[in-house]
Target: Phosphomethylpyrimidine synthase
Amino acid sequence: MNAPDSFATLLARTRESFPASTKSFITGSRADLRVPVRDIALTNGEVVSVYDTSGPYTDPAAIIDVKQGLQSVRGAWIAERGDTERYEGRKPVALDDGSKSEDAARLAQLRQEAAALQRQPLRAKAGANVTQMHYAKKGIITPEMEYVALRENGKREWMAQYMADAAREKRLAGNPMGALIPKIITPEFVRDEVARGRAIIPANINHPEVEPMAIGRNFLVKINANIGNSAVTSSIEEEVEKLVWAIRWGADNVMDLSTGKNIHTTRDWIVRNSPVPIGTVPIYQALEKVGGIAEDLSWEIFRDTLIEQAEQGVDYFTIHAGVRLAYIHLTAQRRTGIVSRGGSIMAKWCMAHHRESFLYTHFEDICDIMKAYDVSFSLGDGLRPGCASDANDEAQFAELHTLGELTQIAWKHDVQTMIEGPGHVPMHMIQANMTEQLKTCHEAPFYTLGPLTIDIAPGYDHIASAIGAAMIGWMGTAMLCYVTPKEHLGLPDRDDVKQGIIAYKIAAHAADVAKGHPGARARDDALSQARFDFRWQDQFNLGLDPETAQEYHDETLPKDAAKVAHFCSMCGPKFCSMKITQEVREFAAAKGVAEGDALAQGMAQKAEEFNRAGGEFYIPIQPV
Amino acid sequence: MNAPDSFATLLARTRESFPASTKSFITGSRADLRVPVRDIALTNGEVVSVYDTSGPYTDPAAIIDVKQGLQSVRGAWIAERGDTERYEGRKPVALDDGSKSEDAARLAQLRQEAAALQRQPLRAKAGANVTQMHYAKKGIITPEMEYVALRENGKREWMAQYMADAAREKRLAGNPMGALIPKIITPEFVRDEVARGRAIIPANINHPEVEPMAIGRNFLVKINANIGNSAVTSSIEEEVEKLVWAIRWGADNVMDLSTGKNIHTTRDWIVRNSPVPIGTVPIYQALEKVGGIAEDLSWEIFRDTLIEQAEQGVDYFTIHAGVRLAYIHLTAQRRTGIVSRGGSIMAKWCMAHHRESFLYTHFEDICDIMKAYDVSFSLGDGLRPGCASDANDEAQFAELHTLGELTQIAWKHDVQTMIEGPGHVPMHMIQANMTEQLKTCHEAPFYTLGPLTIDIAPGYDHIASAIGAAMIGWMGTAMLCYVTPKEHLGLPDRDDVKQGIIAYKIAAHAADVAKGHPGARARDDALSQARFDFRWQDQFNLGLDPETAQEYHDETLPKDAAKVAHFCSMCGPKFCSMKITQEVREFAAAKGVAEGDALAQGMAQKAEEFNRAGGEFYIPIQPV
Model:
C-alpha cells in the first residue's frame, strides 16, 4: 500500500462498489432530496442497508471528473431560501498558496488544472443570517434537516427482525449515559437539536456538493479523518485521492490540515470533490502568509484568510480562541507543554505581544463572518494535554471554560458550534472530561481526538486511542477524530488512513451499541447470524472491511468450498463448536419434538427429571 | 511475515535483544533467585527498566538448544521442600499423539527429536499437597512468591523521578475499582493473596523452567497468547517458534490449544522450552483419543489425559466443569448457541448420555490430581456468549454461579483457581460481568477473552476486543486472553500473534494506569519526556515495538539527522508545536527570569497585570 500508485489507478479502485453492495436512495419530501445508503445483498435473500459516507464515487451511475468537481446536492435548497447573493469575491493572490512557493511554474499549472473548479462565491444578503441554527431557531425545518433525519434512521425495516425478541432487547438495552435518542429521528427532532445547539449540520453555502450530516450526541457517533499536505511531503493528487479513500472506509468528515505549498489550490480540489463536510485550521494558512513567524500574525491577515476559505466552501473552522494570555503560564510545568499547533502559535503570539490573541478579542467579528456563509465553529483545544501526565490539568480546564463562554457568544449569533477535546487521557480520567464539557459548554457537541489512554504504543496509537474514543463516545462525545498508526511518528499513507478509520468506525459503533442507538446492533446480529449459519460470504460482506476478512479467511482455507463449509480453519471439521451446537439441536429435534424450541422443552423436562432424581452434587458413577 | 521462514532463522531473530536493551537481574534472598528485567538505556543517561517475559532467549549469555530444553529455574526450590518424589510415570502410547496419525515415520522422527526432552516426572509424596496455595495457607513464603514480589515491583528507583511531583500524582491518582494494590509488593503480600485465592502462581512441579508470575487483580494485569497446531495446518517447529515469538512481545502466559496430530510430542517441545506458564484444554486431546466422537469420551480417558499432561508440566488446565445438564437448554434460543469448543463437546456428551458430565461429577477426583502436581484450574466458560446479542444471558450466568461453587471445592483442596470469562460483551454490559464474577466466584482471578465490544469487525477483532479488554482489566480482570486479527477467520500466523499481543499489552497497560498501579505510568512519562525533548531514539526504544516505531518514522524522515531534529515530519520545521513551546519558555527565560519555572512566574505576573488592567471580555483593539 505504501508504494504510490498513479492517481487514475487509485481513483478507479476507490470507485469500485463494496462486495454484494449497491447504492440506493431514500427519497424525502421532495424529488431532489435523495439520501444514499449501501444495500448489502446476503446469500439468504436478506438485504442489510448501512449508512454510506462514500458519496457519488461508489455510484456507478455517477460521472466523476475531479477537475470539474461533484454535482451540487444542495444548490437549489440554498437558492430557494432567497437569503444569499453571488458576489465577485476576494481575488486570489500568490500568497494564498504560501509565502515561498519554490516552483512558480508548477503552481501555475496546478491553478490551471483547478480553473474549472472556481465558483463565484455566495454570501448572506446584508443583514441575513444563513446558518442552519438560525433557521432552526426560527422553527424552519430545512431540507438539510430532513436529509439528516432520513440518513440517521436508514432503512429500519430490515432491522426489525433482529429486534423482535422483547426479552433479548430488554437484556441488551443500552445505557445512553444521559443522551436522549428517540426511536425514530424526525426532521423536527433534528431542527430542535440544532436550535438547542446540541447538534450541528456543517454545511457552508459555498459547499453545495456536501451530503448533509449531523454531529450531536443524540445521533450516531461520527468520525473525522485528517488529511493534508505538509512542508515535508505529498502532492495535491494524493490529497484528493486520500479524501476519496477516507470516505470510502467511513469518514463522516475530513479535515484538510495542509501546511505546505499550494494550500489554496489544494483546497479547491478537495472541497469541490468532497461529499462530506471539510474542516480546516485557518491559522495554519495565515502563518504561511507571514512566513511562519507567529509574532507577525495579525487580525487583518487572519480575517482575510477566513473569508478566503469561507468563499471556497470550508464547512467548519478550528479556531483556538480559548488560548488566553492568562492561561499560558499554566502550561509551563507540563511534561509536554503545548502540543496543539494552533495553540502554540497563538501562545507565542500572546507572549510576544503580551496581549489577548486577536482570535479572542475579535471573536464577535469572526462570528459575523461565520454566519454569512454558515461556517461552523470547531473551538480548538489549544491547551489540550500532550501526554497522560498532563491530562485534566488546570490549563486544559481553564481553556474549556473559556470555550463555554465563547459558545454562548457564537450562539448569540446563531453560529453552529462544536468543542474540541483531548488528546491524551488515562481511562479513569475520561468521564471527568465529558462531564466538564457538558457542564461548561452547555451540551454543544464534543469532538475529541482519541483520547489516547497510554503513551507507550508509538506505531499503534490508533489502538491506544480507539479504547479512549469508544469510551468517550459512549459517554456523549458526538464526533471522534481518528488517530493513525503513524501518530507521533510520521505522515499517514493511504493504508494508515484506512487503519485509522477502521479503528475509529469500531470505536464509534461500539459507542452506538452501548448507548442503545436504535438499530445500531442489528448489523452485528446479522453478521453473527451469518457466522452461526456458516454463510461465510455474508460474514465478510457485513463487516467493516470485506476484502481483508475474506483475504484472512482464504489464507488458511483458500478453496471456495470452504466458504460454505460447515466448519472453519480454527477448529477443523471435528471440533467446530457451532457445528456441534447444531448437532445438539438436531439431537433434540430427533427425539421427536419438532418445535423450534424443541431443545428448550426436551431438555427442560430432562433437567427436571434430573432434579427430581436428587440432583445432588455427586451422583454415583456408572460405567460408560 | 506470512512466508514461513526456517526455524533456525526465526529463532535467531527472536534471540536478538531489543534496541538499547540489556537483560539484568534483581537478586532475592538467595543466590538462585534472580528475577529478569529489561534495562533500556536512554541517550540522556537514564535507564528505564521494564518487566521482561522473554525468558533466556533474549539473554546473550544463555545457551539455547530447543532439543535439550531450558535450564531449570525452580528445580532446587521444589526439591528443598522435600514433599515430592520422582516416579516412573505414565508410559506414553501411540494414541497420545492422536488416533489417526497418518504418518508414523514422521511421528517416530519427531519423538526421536524430542527424546532429550523426556523427564522422569515428579509428584507429591503420598498425602502431601504441593500447591502454592497450600504453602500459602500454612504461612510459608516460597521462593516463587518472593520471585513474584520482586518481579511485580521491578526497579522502582528510576520511576521515582517521574512520580516526584505530588500535585501531579494527586491529579493522576488512579481509580482501583476495588483493587487493593500496595505501594510495594512484599513476599508476604503475595503469600496472603495466594492464600485468599485472590491470586494464583501457575507453576507445575514438572515445569521447573518457568519464571514464576502471578495472576491476580492486585498485581499487574497479565495477558495470555494462544498457540497450537490444528487439524488443518502447522508444524511443531512453528509452534515452538510461535511460543518464543509470543513471549518476546510480552505474553505472560501461553496456552497450547493443539488439536491436530502429534499433540503429546508437540507439548514436550513447548513446555520444555517455555519460561512462561503453559495452559491447555485437556478435553481436546481426550477427544482426539476417541476419534473425535464426543459421546465416546469417558472419565477414564480424561483422567489418563490429565495425568499425562500434568507429568509433562502443564501449569493450568481449562476444565469446562460448569457445563451442567440443566443449563444446556438455556442456549437453545441463542443467536450463536454454544461457541466454546470444550463447552460444546461436553454439552453433546451430556445430551447423549443425559447425565451430568464427568468433569462435574468427578470434580474432586480432578482436584486430587491437580494438587499432586500443582496444576491450577482455569474453570472454563463453556457457555460464554458467542456474539453481542447473547451477552449476559441466563446460560452464561448460570454457569458462572456453578464455577463459583466449584471454586470453593477446589480451594478446599488448596488447588489454585482462576475463572474464564467472555467473550462478546457490549461496553455497557461489561461491568455486570465483573461484578457478578467477583460476587459469585469469591474474588478468584478473572481471566477473560476480550471481550469483543462489537461483531462487525472481522479482520480487526484484536481492536474490537482490546477496547473491552482494557475496560474489564481496569474493573478487575487479572489476565486478558488475546484476540488476533484472524479471530473468526483463520489461524494466526506469527505477525497476527504479534499484532494480537501488542493490542493486549496496550489494553493491559491502560488498565494498570487506570487502576493506579504504582509505577505503571512512569514508562509513559519517560516516553513522553523523550518525545518532548526530541529524543527520537529513546521514544522508539521505550515503546512496545521499537522497530515498527522507527520504521514508521523513517518512512517520512529517513535521514539519521531527523532522529535528533527539533521537529518532526507531521508539522515540519516551522510548525512544530513542541518547538514553539520551547521557544515560549526561552522567551520567558530571556526576559531575565532564570528559574526553571520562569514562565510560571513571569507570566503569572503578566497575567496579574492583565487582570488588574480590567481583564474584561473585550479590550480595545490596538493596531498590530
Notes: Chain A touches chain B through 156 residues (CB under 8 Å). Confidence is low (pLDDT under 50) at residues 566-575, 591-599, 613-624 of chain A.
